Amino acid sequence: MIRNPILPGFNPDPSICRVGRDYFIATSTFEWYPGVQIHHSTDLVNWRLVKRPLDRAAQLDMRGAPDSGGIWAPCLSYADGLFWLVYTDVKRLDGNFKDAHNYIVTAPSIEGPWSDPVYVNSSGFDPSLFHDDDGRKWFLNMVWNHISTGVGGSPRHPSFAGILLQEYDPEAKKLVGTVRNIFAGSPHGLVEGPHLLKRDGWYYLTTAEGGTGYDHAVTMARSRDIGGPYELHPDTHVITSKDAPAAVLQRAGHGQIVETPEGAVYHTHLCSRPLPGLRRSPLGRETAIQKCVWGEDGWLRLEKGGPVPEVEVLAPVAVTSKPRRETISHDFDGPELPLDFQWLRTPYPERLLSLSEKPGVLRLFGRESIGSWYEQALVARRQEDFSFRAETELAFAPENFQQAAGLTHYYNRHKFHFLAVTHDARRGRVLTILSCPGDWPNGKLDFLLADPLPLRADGPVGLAAEVAGDALQFWYRDGGDWAKAGPVLDASVISDEGGRGEHGSFTGAFIGMAAFDTSGSGMPADFDYFSYTRREG
């Protein structure tokens, strides 16, 4: 059996591609660097992260990109002996405008080398590339209408002005011919995320609708001509949880069809799992997959009937799901940052971190403040479980209050809790908690320890975070036993829906190590290890 979500934690907008018996899923990474996550499987059950292809300045520079900007909705395909990756780089998402630029990169294998990007257009986001059986290539994206009322995280239908189609010439590396608006969407509105599939002479267009919140849905239409007109699916939506508030997988939408070599049909989609009793999803939008069938009327539907996605789905072959490791620990003894981790925005990580300056530790150089959109020394991994413990040990000798380093439960500049070693003029080295519990747009901090906890003048400090559902407890160890640091905090705010709300936050919770030095002197902080332990609940 397949158990959903197949990619737990922040992995939205799944585009699936099959090459032989190998399946690949590309998902959005937004402001986290390197850009685009690609997972691999041979059975649709067990998945492994294998590549983040946008990993150098020539391909991607997101310094200055806002929270939830950056890489949106990649589309991965294979044709002509190459992998083709299409993606949007969003530079602005507030107000009436979406400054969204679309690019294509290619590679002979998933491992690369991946090319420099080819610029395509900027008319909207969620691009895809369709390789027709006559050899022609077609580029699709939703078109954004700024002359509308879709402003500031509260989308309205007029902003999502349809799906554009135009031919792409790979030799000239540009769009050619007439651009056509081929699909205005259903009455549900907010049409985006287009993908094309050709079957039995029909062009099937799947799109996402309803916004990426609790009204989200996969909508299908078809046409005999790629340019339309497209007729709606008789049920309109193939996958949605919008009318099923008790479903485990909520916010279902935005995915793509894949067929196995034997002809079985599956459809990926994003989803979220809100905390029990709360409309908050700290794990962000995750990736799931559903088994489908083609009906006698030529339309696709879920195998079990209805549009509501299932947690357990029949796999294409009998295979055992490999258990996830209970504890994942990194000692930072190697020359490269483990694949679990990402940082924010910049293509120049050497300014933020080093694994060689002091071998055996991850050294972070204090840069701009936590939450900066430019150069922030924060290295973190996705939260993949509702309950977990994360632990590290820090060597850090701050000289003033502008220098801090520690462990953070982080979503964006408006949603984080930060257990930090810093310096107090009267007490010397101390432990404090900086928290921003969803104060959008101001980002006002709460200082949750009225009196910072005194620490030894030197020596390593152990830091830990235990999350159980909506509760976060920080811990510390200063040469002795573990002790609680501060009160129980609201972990649920570190979620899509916390603060600004579901239509303005598109990533997920991370747990990791951070350092800042707003004096500008780049004070180093050395992290000896980092462990993440899954817990029941």
UniProtKB/TrEMBL annotation:
SUPFAM superfamilies documented for this protein: Arabinanase/levansucrase/invertase, Concanavalin A-like lectins/glucanases
A biological process term (GO) from this entry: carbohydrate metabolic process
A Pfam family annotated for this UniProt entry: Glyco_hydro_43
The organism's place on the tree of life at top rank: Bacteria
Molecular functions (GO terms): hydrolase activity, hydrolyzing O-glycosyl compounds
Chain positions of site Important for catalytic activity, responsible for pKa modulation of the active site Glu and correct orientation of both the proton donor and substrate: 126
Keywords: Glycosidase, Hydrolase
Active site: 13 (proton acceptor), 192 (proton donor)
CDD domains according to UniProt: GH43_SXA-like
Domain Beta-xylosidase C-terminal Concanavalin A-like: 330-533
Family affiliation: Belongs to the glycosyl hydrolase 43 family.
Protein name from the UniProt record: Glycoside hydrolase family 43 protein
